[in-house]
Write a structure and sequence with these properties.
Blueprint (H helix, E strand, L loop, with lengths): L2 E5 L7 H11 L12 E5 L14 H13 L7 E5 L7 H7 L2 H7 L3 E4 L6 E3 H5 L9 H4 L5 E3 L6 E5 L3 E3 L3 E3 L6 H4 L11 H14 L3 E10 L3 E9 L1
Parallel strand pairs: 2-3, 2-7, 3-4, 7-10
Antiparallel strand pairs: 1-11, 5-6, 8-9, 10-11
Helix pairs in contact: 1-2
Length: 230
Amino acid sequence: MKSKVAIIKTTPATVLEDYHRLMNLADYQNYISKDVDTALKINISWHFFYPGSSTTPWQLEGVIRALKRDGFKSELIHGCHNRTVVIDAHLGEKENKQINVINSHNLRNIHLYEGEEWIDIRDAVGDLTKKFLCLNEVYPKGFSIPKRFIGENIIHLPTVKTHVFTTTTGAMKNAFGGLLNEKRHWTHPVIHETLVDLLMIQKRSTMAFLPLWTELLQETGRVPAAWFPM
C-alpha cells in the first residue's frame, strides 16, 4: 500500500484556507466520494479545551469549509462521536467548541452509541476475519462495528499526542474508537497489529478513509498534515 503525505506550515490568519489547500495536496477528492455520507470522526481525549489533545474547532471548521467549497453537499456531511470510559462526549463537544461548528453549518451530529445499529464483524467483512493479525485473539467471541460506516467516507480529525500505552496516538489510533464497540483498551498491548486489522476492515467495508491531523510545534506554530493510503 502506497501513501501520500501532505504537510504545510500555517498561521492563525490562514489556517482555514490552508486546510483546503492541504486536503487537495493529498488528492483527497480522488478517494472521497461526493455521493455518499461523509463522517467527520471527531476526537475528544478530554472534556475540557486542550488544543493539543482533541479536535480543534478550527480544524473542524477548515475541513467542513474545504468539503463544501469542493462541492460536497451539507446534507451528506455529519459530525461523528464515539463513547469512551474516561470522557463525556456531549460535554467534550461543548467545551471544545466542536458542536458550535457543527451547528453553524447545520450539519447532523451523530453519537454512535445513541440509536445507531451495530453489526457483527463477521457479517460486515465475512472471511476477512481469518486474516486478522490479532483481533480474533483479543475478541474470541467477535465484536461489532457501526453499520452506517459501511460504504461511507470517514475523515478522521485527531491530534498527534503521547499515549501511556501506545507511545503516540494520532490518525490511525482514532480509528479504533469507532470500529471497536467495547473494551477497546484490550488492544493496547497489540496496538500496531490492531491498526493493521482495522485498515483491512476499512478497505473491505469500502470506507474511504482520510486521516487528517494537526500537531503542535513550539517554534513553527501549527502544522496541519494529511495522509491517505492509496
